[in-house]
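In this supplementary section we document a worked example of the pipeline. Step one takes a protein sequence of length 231 as its only input; no multiple sequence alignment statistics are reported here. Step two produces a three-dimensional model, which step three serialises into structure tokens for compact storage. The input and output of this example are shown verbatim.
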Amino acid sequence: MTTIPKPKHCGQNWLDMNPTEGGRICGQCEKKIVDFSKSSWSEIEKQQSLHNNGLCGMYHPKQLENWGQEISESNNSLLKAAVITGISISIANSSYGQSIINADSLVIQGKVIDGDVGEGLPAAIVRLKNNKIQTMTDMDGNFKLVLRNVPSTPIPDTLEISEVGYPKKLLVFNDLKQMNSSESGIKLENGKLNITLATPDTEIISFYVHAPTRAQRMKWKIKSWFRRKDK
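The serialised model returned by step three reads:
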């Protein structure tokens, strides 16, 4: 088990930062943000240990999802293919996906929020323990679970929310169709759950920014080109 705490999310944009050797300079705090997106876990661990776990960094979502673990070579080599395939499947099946959510299905959706900064928490695992279905929050902390063939009787279950560096949260529901819970840190607004996770009262001394996607890099280059043209 790693002794390096998972860094907290920072809302700054990596692409807007000024480049420097090995990373970029954050325009808000002027600290160096190290580019760890292509580093192995052993390299990350070594660098963080040398700096008292205080280095802010830019990480790939896979690194954050598997914090404290080496990502296998097969996962790295298949990463681009998985992203492209996911986009293709999403487009091809968009109409089909709408049609299968019918009167016999129960949709549970909401957002997992980082209670320390008040922002959506990406890559958190949301799982229905009894029904054995799970999903992962997106980059904004949103999630959706679809339960098929819903019976007319009550559906008791436990919603489990987990993320590295946060205490696991368990929400017990006597009936998912009613979605009533007295647990703290949960709100039901407009049919969606807002679930707040908070870290223990320990000092967090480092932050992370997400590695920009290819699309985000292209969009940023186009905007930069127009900005230069307008000057």
